[in-house]
Write a structure and sequence with these properties.
The chain is an alpha/beta fold. It is built from twelve helices and eight strands. The longest helix is centred in the N-terminal third of the chain and has 24 residues. The protein is globular and about 55 Å long. 44% of the residues are buried.
Length: 357
């Protein structure tokens, strides 16, 4: 009796695993299709964008604090140096609070970005920083502290609880269906840094499911989830094998970055570095941006305009009185649109203009 039960359970697990594999392979882009898509676009350069008036994703997207005037002004700064791509985080709680209003605000944002010649990579889920996101008024920044108010999506333990998956599936599929053929959307980044903040492989079920949900919708844009921790073998393998375009994060120097590029080239897919540029880690525009251009890898740095996210301060070295750091960690512009470093802005503009010629 016990043997037959065990055999049945094993058989059931086999069929579930096979079914998942089939769903994941459905509509996955071939390498040839990925390269064809990539060749149709100019070299992708830009930033992870959160307006300076928003401490996190919810403050960016909730109706009460959505700020199209600031978005317009700051994307204008990006346009002035030739940036053509922004990576922008969504949030499932903003959708939960107001389905239709949230989608209208996404459309408004896309209209502004398009006016500035910018395409957008949207990010769904995120395992980084605050574990308990809440709808409503967001906290004030902690002085001198990097991303003191940034929140995970859907949170912890929310991301591990499968009872939440049906609502998350409805959210993902609704957003994808709404913008599945929108040329202003460049690519869908389904999960930022899965396994971060101590979650490790507990994030794998949601990661697998969001790929399945997205494959079922089959948008015209490619799907990805960026590699970021090189010792996360199981997660990295899954992300690399299921992404149409290979994306990754890297915040170290040229030699180490080149080593990662060489390893990722073995997958035979186009690549976009969706996070880099941490000055005090020697990941700078001066050394990394030319490398990415040489390798024809998209270059999306962290941060555009210094603001409430406080990401001009380094990850783990807060300045408690909120005074100016000796050297900014992230960000390109001050709020008034003047570059933090004019030589960096000149280099970015020069390299982008070379592509246009």
């Amino acid at each position: 009796m016990k043997k037959s039960i065990l055999a049945g359970l094993l058989l059931c697990a086999f069929y579930i695993g096979s079914s998942q594999e089939n769903l994941l392979e459905k509509n996955k882009w071939s390498r040839e299709k990925a390269h064809e898509w990539y060749a149709q676009h100019a070299w992708m350069t830009g930033a992870n964008f959160n307006p300076s008036t928003a401490i996190n994703q919810l403050e960016m997207w909730q109706e009460e604090t959505f700020d199209p005037e600031t978005i317009d002004r700051e994307l204008g700064y990006a346009e002035s140096i030739g940036f053509n791509t922004m990576r922008v985080y969504l949030h499932s709680l903003a959708y939960k609070a107001d389905h239709e209003g949230f989608k209208k605000r996404i459309d408004t944002y896309l209209g502004i970005a398009d006016k500035h010649g910018i395409k957008t990579m949207f990010v769904f889920f995120d395992d980084v920083w605050g574990k308990t996101p809440k709808i409503g008024k967001q906290p004030d920044p902690v002085p001198g502290t990097h991303n003191s108010g940034w929140v995970q999506d859907p949170g912890d333990p929310a991301s591990k609880e499968e009872k939440n998956f049906p609502a998350l599936e409805s959210y993902v599929k609704d957003i994808l269906k709404t913008f599945a053929n929108d040329k202003r959307v460049l690519i869908w980044d389904l999960y930022n840094e899965p396994g971060n903040t101590g979650k490790l492989t507990s994030s794998l079920p949601l990661l697998k499911n969001v790929f399945i949900w997205a494959r079922e919708v089959n948008p015209s844009q490619p799907l990805t989830a960026g590699l970021w921790a090189w010792d996360f073998q199981e997660l990295n393998t899954f992300q690399a094998q299921n992404s149409d375009i290979l994306t990754y994060h890297h915040y170290e120097d040229t030699e180490k970055h080149q080593h990662v590029i060489n390893l990722l080239k073995t997958h035979g897919r186009p690549m976009i570095c969706t996070e880099y540029m941490a000055r005090t880690n020697n990941s700078r525009f001066s050394n990394i941006l030319p490398l990415l251009k040489k390798e024809n890898i998209g270059a999306i740095n962290w941060g555009l305009v210094a603001g409430k996210s406080n990401t001009k301060y380094a990850w783990n070295t807060p300045i408690k009185d909120g005074s100016e750091p000796v050297e900014w960690f992230h960000e390109v512009f001050r709020k008034d649109g003047s570059p933090y470093r004019q030589d960096e802005a000149d280099l970015i503009k020069k390299l982008n203009n070379e592509v246009k010629k």
